[in-house]
Structures are given as structure tokens and as C-alpha cells.
């Protein structure tokens, strides 16, 4: 996998690449910016300039002065007290995404950490060593990063391939020594929006692949149901202003061009059901929202989200206490993305139901191989309905939850990290649902007499390269899992 070079700011695509295993390297320009900010923090310490989290407590303890002999201890203690995650650990890719976003934040040169901090995190990434980070327990950003940062001081546990090792073992394998944190470094290690931003990058990467498959699989179902192509003809769609709608309409026309099945059905019905006719509108709206979310997330990666941040020079240092670590924009964008993907998946289930209903499809009930002796995809649709229901619950906005923490000091919470985690969960559910529709659409072709379109034939070949026709001869869940794994890692065939 090509190396990702961090010079100015990573994009969401680059963070996703690192999450999936690409090495990450810092340029000399990035390291120079990091050094300059560290020198400013050192000047603040030496001159006794009051600065939050440097020489004061944190949260509601922000007015408690911490004398210089205790400032290193403050940094160390922040990691210990803020590592409060609960539940099962995050998967490797999710943790790597957070680490990449954190390194990106330090590389802007306003956090004040020494270069050893991002270099050590990058060394862990590049050695394939992933801190064990509990997935739950964060309203914004603190606990996930604290668990990652523990490893830098030789505390906590680390995934090394299939094994779990101590932080000390992991550091030794990466050729690193445990760090003695300096003033502000403990706060910088847990602060900002890298947690939500990193997870958001991964959600975007997975949602982008999902939206490509959603168009392709919808086309296969539409072909099997003999959809009326007039609904997405260019002269009709150009009258509706939406870039996403135009893209989806063009993709549907491409997939169904030359379809004997569609040609044989022309004239049989005036207008299709909305789960077919409105695919460009719903999938297109999701694509438009995806682009808006991607803009927000790239903007977040280009921003400094530390509190406090430092500017100026060692001779004229400035420290700024603000609220850049509040991820309201992230939470709102992720809530929107999650809802859009949930709607796409709900429409997929409606198409699936039409495929399985003989009164609508004209195909054998549940696409079963043998009448009453086989159930075919009957209960697979139950699973699809369950996933739609779960997505509907998950799509409740996290950004509206509010809450109060730190003895009234933090009396507004935007919940960007929960928003990112539920967006990832919705994308996974939606991918599983599309996998079921893909299986059913492929099954339906067995009962067609006319020819498939060349493009849908390639999609069908991808499916049959994985799985044979389903004849109630094996647990259907196995096929569903195989299809899900394929959709999660591959793109629809283009030739």
C-alpha cells in the first residue's frame, strides 16, 4: 500500500487509507511546525504565563494553578484519569483512523507537543501496532485518545496482529522508549476532535463504496422487475436540480442499457412504485449530502482543534483558550450522513420485498427453487426489515442529546464521536441489507427468459464468482455474510 505523506493537512481519503493499513510519514515541514509550537509552550512555562492545562487544572479545575514542579505530573495524570472508555474495543481500522487524525492535528503546529509525540504515534501505525481502545464512553473526544496515549507512557495494551501485548512490549517492538510527558502534552493528547474526525473519514470511505453498490444493485432489481426507464431518462431528470440525482440517473441508464428484460417489459405499466421510480432522487440526495459531509470533514482536518492553542513565537508567545474542540459541525454532518444512508437502505428493503412477492414481480414466491418445499429468501427479508428498524433507531440525531459534564463547566455537548460511531453502524447495517438485495436480484435472473444488460451481467458475474444459485441447500446466513464482506471491500464491476 502506498505511503501517505503528511505535509500540510490530510484529506479524508488519506486518513481512510491510513486506517486501512497505509504507512504515514511526517515531512520535515510538518516537524518544523511542531517544533515551533513546542518552543512556544516551553516559553509559556518558563515565563509563568497562565495557560489552561499547561499550568492550571482542566475542566472545572481550570482556575486551580499547577506549579511548575507538578506540570509533568499533570500531563501524566490526565491520561490516567481520562482513560474511562467502556465496552468492547474499537476495530483496528477505527483506531488507526483516530491516530492518523490526531497526528494531522499536531502537524498544524499549534498544539505545543514535542515531535516525539506524533512520531511515536506514526511509528506505532507503521509497525502495525494498534492500542486497545474501548469503543464507548465518550461524549466528544477525551476517552478514546486517552487510551491511545496510554501506550506512549508504557501503560495499556496493544494489538499486534492476532495477539494482544503490553504497551511496553509494543514500544520495544517499534523501537521506542516510553515518553515522559511535558507540560500541556497530556491535555493535547486527549483534546480536540481527532477521534470523531478519524471515525468520520472511515464512515465516508465506507459510505462512498456503499452508494456505488446501491446504484448497481438497485439496477439489477429494477431490471428483474421490468422497470420503466422513462423515469430516469435524461430529458426528465435534467429538470430536477441535483448533481447527485444526475449522477445516479446516468449510472442507472448505463447499467440497464441493452437490457432485453427491460425492453420486453416496456409498455406493460405506466408508472413504477416509488422504490424503483425514485431511486435517482433518494440515492441522489444521499450523494449530495455525502459531498456536503465530505466538505465539512476535510475542513475539520484542515483546522486546529486544540484547546488551548498557541501562536506567536517564544519571544512573544500567545495562548488562546477557545472552544475549537467542540465538534458541532462534525456531529451535524454525521447525523445527516447517517440518516441519508438509513433511507437508502430502507428503500433497498422495499425493492427486496417486491422481488420476493409473486403478485408484484411475476416471479416464483420468495425466489424459491421448488414451490412449497423451499422457502428461498422469505426469511432473509425478515432480516432486512430488522436492519431497517435498527437503522431507524440509530438515525436519531446524536447532536441533539446535550448533557452536562464537569460540574457545569461543560454545559453543552455536541456528541460528535457518538454521531460517528452510529454512522459507522448504520453504514454496516445498510451494506448487509444491500448484500441481501444483491443475492435476491442475482437469484431472480434464474427465472428470466430475456437477456440481461451487459453491465448488469458483469454485476451478476461478480456474484456468481462468489456464490452459486441458492436452493435451500445451505444456511442462507453464510451467503449473506460472504456477500457483505465482498461489498465491504470491493467495487462494482465496470467492465
Task: Please tell me the overall pLDDT.
Answer: 92
End-to-end distance, in Å? Answer: 24 Å
SS strand fraction:
5-15%
User: Helices and strands, in N-to-C order?
Assistant: EHEHHEHHEEHEEHHHHHHHHEEHHHHHH
Q: What is the CATH architecture descriptor of the largest domain?
A: Up-down Bundle
Global morphology? elongated
| Helix percentage range | 55-70%
Give the strand order of the largest sheet, numbering strands 1, 2, ... along the chain: 4-6-7
What would CATH call the class of the largest domain? Mainly Alpha
In the CATH hierarchy, the third-tier topology of the largest domain is known as: Fumarase C, Chain A, domain 2
Total discrete domains: 2
| CATH superfamily descriptor of the largest domain | Fumarase/aspartase (Central domain)
Rounded Rg: 26 Å
How many DSSP E strands? Answer: 9
Uncertain segments are none
Question: How would you characterize the largest beta sheet?
Answer: 3 strands, antiparallel
Per DSSP, the total helix count is 20
Structural class: mainly alpha
What does this structure look like?
With 495 residues, this protein is mainly alpha-helical. It folds into two domains: 4-191, Fumarase C, Chain B, domain 1 (Orthogonal Bundle), CATH 1.10.275; 200-489, Up-down Bundle (Fumarase C, Chain A, domain 2). The chain is 55% helix and 6% strand. It contains 20 helices and nine strands. It has helices spanning 12-19, 28-47, 71-82, 92-106, 116-126, 142-150, 167-173, 185-190, 194-224, 234-237, 243-256, 260-265, 274-277, 279-301, 328-356, 358-361, 378-394, 416-444, 454-464, 476-489, and strands at residues 4-6, 24-26, 86-89, 129-131, 134-136, 157-160, 163-166, 309-312, 317-320. The strands form four sheets. Strands 4-6-7 form a three-stranded antiparallel beta sheet. A hairpin with a 2-residue loop joins β6 and β7 (163-166). α4 (92-106) runs antiparallel to α5. It is elongated. The two termini are 24 Å apart. The mean pLDDT is 92.
Amino acid at each position: 500500500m502506498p505511503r501517505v505523506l503528511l505535509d500540510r493537512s490530510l484529506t479524508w481519503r488519506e486518513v481512510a487509507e491510513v486506517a486501512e493499513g497505509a504507512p504515514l510519514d511526517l515531512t520535515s515541514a510538518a516537524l518544523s511546525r511542531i517544533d515551533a509550537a513546542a518552543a512556544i509552550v516551553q516559553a509559556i512555562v518558563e515565563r509563568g504565563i497562565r495557560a489552561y492545562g499547561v499550568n492550571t487544572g482542566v475542566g472545572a479545575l481550570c482556575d486551580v494553578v499547577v506549579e511548575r514542579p507538578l506540570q509533568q505530573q499533570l500531563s501524566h495524570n490526565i491520561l490516567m484519569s481520562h482513560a474511562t472508555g467502556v465496552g468492547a474495543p474499537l476495530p483496528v481500522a477505527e483506531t488507526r483512523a483516530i491516530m492518523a487524525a490526531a497526528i494531522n492535528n499536531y502537524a498544524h503546529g499549534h498544539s505545543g507537543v514535542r515531535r516525539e509525540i506524533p512520531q511515536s504515534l506514526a511509528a506505532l501505525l507503521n509497525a502495525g501496532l494498534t492500542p486497545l481502545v474501548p469503543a464507548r464512553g465518550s461524549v466528544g473526544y477525551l476517552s478514546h485518545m486517552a487510551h491511545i496515549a496510554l501506550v506512549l507512557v508504557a501503560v495499556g495494551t496493544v494489538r499486534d496482529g492476532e495477539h494482544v501485548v503490553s504497551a511496553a512490549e509494543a514500544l520495544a517492538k517499534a523501537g521506542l522508549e516510553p515518553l515522559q510527558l511535558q507540560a500541556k502534552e497530556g491535555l493535547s493528547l486527549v483534546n480536540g476532535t481527532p477521534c470523531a474526525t478519524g471515525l468520520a473519514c472511515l464512515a465516508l470511505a465506507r459510505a462512498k463504496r456503499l452508494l456505488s453498490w446501491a446504484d448497481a444493485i438497485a439496477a439489477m432489481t429494477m431490471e428483474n422487475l421490468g422497470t420503466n426507464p422513462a423515469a430516469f431518462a435524461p430529458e426528465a431528470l435534467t429538470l430536477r436540480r441535483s448533481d447527485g440525482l444526475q449522477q445516479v440517473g446516468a449510472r442507472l441508464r448505463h447499467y440497464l442499457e441493452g437490457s432485453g428484460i427491460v425492453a420486453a417489459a416496456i409498455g406493460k405499466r405506466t408508472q413504477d412504485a416509488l422504490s424503483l421510480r425514485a431511486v435517482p432522487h433518494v440515492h441522489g440526495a444521499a450523494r449530495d449530502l455525502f459531498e456536503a459531509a465530505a466538505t465539512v470533514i476535510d475542513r475539520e482536518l484542515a483546522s486546529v482543534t486544540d484547546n488551548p492553542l498557541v501562536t506567536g513565537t517564544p519571544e512573544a508567545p500567545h495562548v488562546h483558550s477557545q472552544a475549537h474542540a467542540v465538534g458541532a459541525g462534525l456531529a451535524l454532518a454525521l447525523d445527516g450522513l447517517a440518516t441519508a444512508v438509513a433511507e437508502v437502505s430502507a428503500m433497498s428493503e422495499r425493492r427486496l420485498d417486491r422481488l420476493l412477492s409473486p403478485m408484484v414481480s411475476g416471479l416464483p414466491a420468495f425466489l424459491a427453487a421448488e414451490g412449497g418445499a423451499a422457502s428461498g429468501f422469505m426469511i432473509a427479508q425478515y432480516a432486512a426489515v430488522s436492519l431497517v428498524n435498527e437503522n431507524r433507531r440509530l438515525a436519531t440525531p446524536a447532536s441533539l442529546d446535550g448533557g452536562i459534564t464537569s460540574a457545569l463547566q461543560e454545559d453543552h455537548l455536541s456528541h460528535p464521536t457518538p454521531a460517528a460511531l452510529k454512522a459507522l453502524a448504520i453504514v454496516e447495517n445498510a451494506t448487509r441489507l444491500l448484500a441481501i438485495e444483491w443475492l435476491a436480484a442475482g437469484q431472480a435472473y434464474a427465472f428470466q427468459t430475456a437477456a440481461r444488460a451487459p453491465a448488469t451481467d458483469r454485476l451478476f458475474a461478480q456474484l456468481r464468482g462468489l456464490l452459486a444459485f441458492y436452493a435451500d441447500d445451505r444456511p442462507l446466513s453464510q451467503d449473506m455474510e460472504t456477500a457483505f464482506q465482498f461489498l465491504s471491500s470491493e467495487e462494482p464491476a465496470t467492465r
